[in-house]
Request: fold
Amino acid sequence: DAEALEEAQLVIVPFERVMVTMRKHREIWDITSTFCALFCERIRAARPPEQWPTDISIPWEFGDMVAAMDLEQRRVISFDALERLPATIGWRNTKADGIRQLTEEVSRGQSVVLLNSMGEPER
Reply:
């Protein structure tokens, strides 16, 4: 479950400017639109015995949402995370063959790589 651990800060972003920017980037538009649709579906479908979603907690993780996206969207998200591999401590000692194999698995849709809450790639 995702739960807020710290006080939130309110950020106000003009909707019109966000839409103009997103329309310039097809992949961002597609991923954001899909995420919003999946989020709404899960909110509407939430029923006991699962937890009810609240403004503090939802009974699913970002990875669950990505797993429900189509293959191309999962690839875009995964390749973005893979680009950060060399900069993260946990992956520095990973052999090139392992990274190449993981990249191939992402290409084939067999693996998904996401950034965790620390900004590090996670399979």
